[in-house]
Amino acid sequence: MSAAADLPLWAALLVALLLLLGSGLTLLGAIGLVRLDSFYKRVHSPTMGTTWGTGGILLASMLFFTMTEGRPVLHELLIAVFVTVTTPVTLMLLARAALYRDRTEQSPHVPTFTAVSERSSEVVENGKPGEPGEPG
Amino acid sequence: MSATILVWAVTISQLFLALAALCCVVRLFRGPRAQDRVLALDALYVCAMLILLTFGIRTGSTLYFEAALVIALLGFVSTSALAKFLMRGEVIE
User: Fold this and answer.
1) TM spans, by residue (chain B) (predicted)?
2) ipTM of the complex, rounded to two decimals
3) Are A92 and B55 in contact (CB under 8 A)?
4) Which A residues, 14 through 33, put their C-beta within 8 Å of a C-beta on chain B?
5) What predicted TM-score, i.e. pTM, was given to this entire model?
6) A84: closest CA among A47, A59, A128?
7) Lesser CB count within 10 Å: N end or C end of chain A?
């Protein structure tokens, strides 16, 4: 850490705060991944790590290299944009695959194909949904 | 002073991220079904990427950024391929 010695104090404090925020939120998301009890609950918890976890550490890295190199270093934005765009895509693909697998095995915790199609035709006929949202 | 603050912050955040990766590994081994394991692998990719970024701050070299970018790309590709495999039984049809 030779370059860190000439960092001003406010920048060091801000970098430290952003680092701890990001890593703490990532740890909370990972604990949720272990502790939550169904897949459809667990699929939400790693997103804490991919939103503010990644965001905090990337902001800390941007601030650190901008201060030490004396010029704007913005290439961390590339990772930030990429992670923000791809995480919903992958998790939605994964959740749809899990829903498909659970429905074909006729697991009791998710609505079946027929229940969903009956409910959607009911919506078309009556103009209002019978149940407030489907679980999962 | 600022060097001390940064050393402590980077060390603590690396500890947190290592614990997060450990939690992901626990879910990877324990996960009752395949989709749980894929989800844990995706979270493990993110943890590894963040650990590399904190190594970049610790050493002051921007080289680790490239490795983190490659990990982010490979994580997206591998997770979507595995999700496609779980959905359809093959990746490219």
Assistant:
1) 6-26, 38-57, 63-87
2) 0.90
3) no
4) 15-17, 19-20, 22-24, 26-27, 29-31, 33
5) 0.84
6) A47
7) N
